[in-house]
Structure formats: C-alpha cells, structure tokens
Write a structure and sequence with these properties.
The strands form 3 sheets. The protein has a 6-stranded mixed sheet with strand order 1-7-8-6-5-3, with helices on one face. Strands 9-10-11-12-13 form a 5-stranded mixed sheet. A two-stranded antiparallel ribbon has the order 2-4. A hairpin with a 3-residue loop joins strand 5 and strand 6. It has 3 domains: about 220 residues, Histidine kinase-like ATPase, C-terminal domain (Heat Shock Protein 90), CATH 3.30.565.10; about 140 residues, Globin-like (Orthogonal Bundle); about 120 residues, STAS domain (Transcription Regulator spoIIAA, 2-Layer Sandwich). It has about 525 residues and is of the alpha/beta class. The structure holds adenosine-5'-diphosphate and magnesium ion. The site of magnesium ion (MG) has 4 residues, from helix 4.
C-alpha cells in the first residue's frame, strides 16, 4: 500500500479528526449503552410483580451493574487530569518502549520504525500521551487478524512533530470512519469503544491534531501532530519560579526544611514514572522514597559527605535486598537533582545568594559532586550485595550437585547427574573426601547413569578420587557406566579394575549391599 502524501486512491478514506465527538454523538452513545440494560431491568421488574422469582432479581441487578459500569467508564475518561504537569517528552523514546509491551505479538506482527528526528521534544502531559499512544498501538495490533506489519514513524519540522502509526490490517469501512471517537463505538466483541474517545480527547488537550486514513482490507494510518513550543520557560524546567517561602536567617538548610512539602510536591510532579511505584516500594521494602529524598538533599546542601556516603550504602543494600529496579532509582535521583536545582534557583532569586559566576560554579561543583558520590556509592553497595548473593547461591548449587545419600549406617550412594567437568569433579572430590572423614562409610556407590559422557581427564580425576576413598578405608562401587564413557576409557587405556567394583545398575549394587549387610548382622 502506498501512503505517500499526494497519492489519493479512490477507495481510500481520509478524515480529519481535529474535532472531538459532538455532544449529540456522546449523548447517543450513552443513551444506547445505558438504555439497553435499563430496559432489561424494567422488564424484569414487571415480571417480578407477576411472579416473585429470585432469578429475576439477579438478572435485574447484573443489568444495573452493566449500566453503572458504562457510566463509570465514561466519567473516568472525561475527568481531566489537572494534576499532571506538562513536561518535555521525546515521542520516539516513548514509542520505542511502548512497542515492547506487545512483545508477545512479535511472532506474527513485524514492527518497523522510521524515526527521522529522534531527540525532538514536545511539551505535553506525559502519562496521558503514553496511554493514548498505547491505545492506538493496541488497536493496530488488534486490526491485524493473522500476520502483518505495523509501521511507526516520526519526523519533525521547525514548527511541529508528526508521528504516525500505520497497520496493514482490516481497515475501516468509509461509513464507519465518521464514527471513530464516538464513545462506545466498537466492532469488537469485547471492545469498550472508549479507546479512541480517550485518544482524541488527550490529543486535543495537548494541543495536537489527529488524522486517520483507512482503506478496507488494506490498512489504517493514524497521523498525529504536536506543535513545537517556543516557550522556554516550560522547557527549561530547572529554572521555574516556584511559590516558596523565605526563611529568616536564610541558610540553605533552613530553606529546604521550611519548604519541605513544596519540595515533595514538586518531586512527585517531576518523577512521573516513579510516582506510581512509591507505595509499592514502601510496601515491599519499607522505603519512604519521598522522605529519603528530602533527607539526601539536606545532607547535600549542608555538605555532609560522610552522611551522604553512609546513606547511599544503606539505600543500595535495601534496594538490592528487595530486588527493586535500578531504572526507577536512576529516574528518581535525576528528578531529585532537578528539583533541588530548581529550589536553589529560587533561593538565589529570593536571597541574592550568588554574587558572582565563580560562586555559582563553586556551588555547582559542590552539589553535583555530592550527588554523584551518592550515586556511585549506591550502585557499589547495590552490586556488592547482589554479587555476594550470587556467590552464596552458587555454593548452595555446588553443594546440591554432590548429594551423598546414606542408605545403611555403613553404605552411601552418590548419584551424579548432568555434565561433570574438571571444575565439578574437583568439587565432588573435595566433598566426598571430607564427608567420608566425618562418617564411617565403608562402602560408597557412585552411580553414573545420569552422566552422559565424561572426558578422559575427568575419568583420570575420578580414578584418583577412588584411590583417596580407598585410603580412607572405604570401598567404591561404580554403577551405570554409559557406553560412551566406557569407549573413552578403553581408548585412553583407563580402568577401574583393582580400585573399584563395577555393577551394571544402581539397583543391582544396592541389592547386593543390603544382602551383605543382612548376612553380616546374621553372622
Ligand atoms: P475498541 O478497541 O474497544 O473497540 P476503540 O475506541 O479503540 O475501541 O476503537 C473503536 C473501533 O474503531 C474499533 O472497534 C475498530 O472497529 C475501529 N478501529 C480503531 N482502530 C483501528 C485500526 N487500526 N484498524 C481498524 N479498525 C480500527
Ligand atoms: Mg481500542
């Protein structure tokens, strides 16, 4: 299919969707969705008057619940998110990470990306935009019944950033095109028909425009444009004028302490992605991110290097202990850094704190060095903790891979499974010899039926171990030798004769040993 700017195939429909669904359209949608269940309720109430049946009450109740769900869905969508701040955003980064959410579909849908101007930022409500793009991507994946391709593009001009999401799926019939964005319009069995309504309203709220081109059984292309802002005050977020209070004696520490709630508020507005995780992190690790951020900033502005380092260490450990994501920590700390600088800027404005450029650079060096010190100690203790954990787990695994199982007071079995290489055979030797030293094992059965193949050098090592076992007054029986191992032994002139007994299977060896034990007791 060709979607070049000029091509206008006759069947292709192209609709500008800059306008939101009209009040009439919305009303019709709600009326339809709510009227159906209410009509059903009315009918069943009538039936109830005639015959008092429990079943009718249940149906009426569930129909009412449907109607309420429809209204709730609509309310949730129309509630404007006044809280969310405008931030600068590179749409290519978001599209990149959003497509990853559809990984499970990649076996059937190929995603092609044409990002011409990555690194171009628009100013928008990030979460809203992400949700809207997610909805468009989801629709595109759903429009492709079997195998297909989704192409995502981005380009920028002087005045705007344009992205498109194009699929070669089912397409939309011309007469339905006008209905897109109308609440509850869906052609899917389990669709809500709220996706595009949300998308259009979000694009509109963020000063964007959206356009759709579609052709039945060829595909659909949504194109969205956002104006590029010239307004520096929104883009240079480090220097936003805030409503902060001056403090009397004027120390930085007091300033941060006094404006603590403003600091926390600003931080939450900045760290969009982490915000949703704060409660979770509190629940998992009992870590109060917000309070900790404030504490860190106080240490930093006071130049308390020692406290910064020890705080970083404890945080690194608890972060590792609870397996919390490092990406979040990084984003969080960057947000803390931005808000701190924003506060310093406001402080300077209020108090005329920095007299000269030299003073500024001095402050910059002090503050950023401490922040970096925090980060590097955090990461160091985080990875140290993880390394130790891995090492301890490795030891457990090694121990588990040499299971010496007592079957009678004087007999034990060592079943070996999997690959035995030189490293592992050294571990086996070590454990067997010290185990025999601790206990009075007279007979050890080593079962090799779970070992597919052993190299000659490993067999040499095994023979050496059998010598050692003998020295400790214990007799070795080898069972379950695989043909492959036997061939290697023959060709390398290796043998167990005179050192160990060999038996075909573990069962045979065991039966014999138990019999011997019984005889010994009987005698
Ligand atoms: P839902 O996905 O729940 O049906 P939406 O508002 O997201 O609701 O979409 C409304 C309808 O628009 C869909 O049911 C579908 O018929 C049509 N539609 C949206 N996107 C596409 C697309 N990429 N290709 C084909 N049809 C689409
Ligand atoms: Mg949808």
């Amino acid at each position: 299919m060709h979607w070049t700017e000029n091509s206008q195939p006759s069947r292709k429909s192209d609709v500008h969707l800059s306008q939101l669904a009209s009040v009439g359209q919305i009303a019709a949608g709600i009326a339809h969705e709510v009227k159906n269940p209410l009509t059903a309720v009315k009918g069943f109430l009538q039936l109830l008057k005639e015959r008092n049946e429990q079943k009718y009450i249940e149906i009426a109740q569930s129909e009412l619940e449907n109607a309420i769900a429809v209204l709730q869905n609509l309310l949730q969508m129309s509630k404007p998110d006044l809280e969310e701040p405008f931030v600068s955003l590179d749409l290519t980064v978001e599209l990149e990470s959003l497509t990853q959410l559809f990984q499970d579909q990649f076996y059937r849908v190929t995603v092609v990306k044409h990002f011409q101007h990555p690194g171009t930022f628009i100013v928008c409500k990030k979460n809203q935009i992400k949700k809207a793009l997610f909805n468009l991507l989801k629709n595109a994946f759903e429009a492709i019944p079997d195998k297909g391709t989704i192409t995502i593009g981005q380009s920028a001009s002087e005045s705007e950033v344009t992205i498109y999401i194009q699929d070669n799926g089912s397409g939309i019939p011309k007469k339905k095109l006008e209905l897109l964005g109308t609440p509850f319009f869906t052609t899917k069995e389990n669709g809500t028909g709220m996706g595009l309504t949300f998308v259009f309203s979000v694009i509109h709220q963020n000063n964007g425009t959206i356009k759709v081109e579609s052709e039945e059984s060829v595909g659909t292309k949504f194109t969205i444009s956002f104006p590029l802002t010239k307004d520096d005050s929104v883009r240079r977020e480090a220097a936003v004028l805030l409503q902060l209070e001056r403090t009397e004696n004027g120390s930085l520490k007091e300033f941060f302490e006094h404006n603590r709630s403003a600091f926390e508020e600003r931080l939450l507005a900045e760290a969009v992605n982490v915000r949703e995780k704060i409660d979770e992190i509190m629940a998992i690790g009992n870590i109060d991110l917000v309070a900790n951020a404030h504490k860190l900033v106080l240490y930093i502005v006071e130049g308390r290097e020692h406290e910064v380092v020890s705080f970083a260490r404890t945080e690194g450990i608890s972060w590792a202990k609870h397996s919390l994501t490092l990406a979040f920590k990084l984003e969080w700390i960057q947000a803390v850094r931005r808000v701190m600088w924003n506060f310093l800027y406001n402080y300077d404005l209020m108090n005329d704190y920095l007299g000269s450029k030299e003073q500024f650079y001095d402050l910059e060096k002090r503050i950023n060095e401490l922040m970096d010190l925090f980060l590097s100690h955090f990461f160091m203790s985080y990875s140290q903790f993880k390394d130790n954990l891995i090492r301890a787990q490795q030891e457990i695994v090694e121990d588990l891979s040499v299971p010496i199982i007592p079957v009678t007071p004087s007999t034990a079995i060592l079943p070996l499974i999997g690959d035995v290489d030189l490293h592992r055979s050294a571990a086996i030797e070590d454990k067997v010899i010290s185990h025999l030293g601790d206990r009075r094992i007279e007979s050890l059965i080593i079962d090799l039926s779970g070992v597919l193949k052993m190299e000659a050098e490993v067999i040499v090592r095994l023979i050496r171990m059998i010598d050692g076992i003998k020295m400790m007054g214990c007799q070795t029986t080898i069972t379950g030798l695989r043909p492959k191992t036997v061939k290697i032994m023959i060709s390398s002139d290796l043998t167990f004769t005179h050192k160990a007994m060999t038996k075909g299977t573990l069962q045979q060896a065991l039966a014999e040993h138990l019999l011997q034990d019984k005889d010994a007791k009987g005698a």
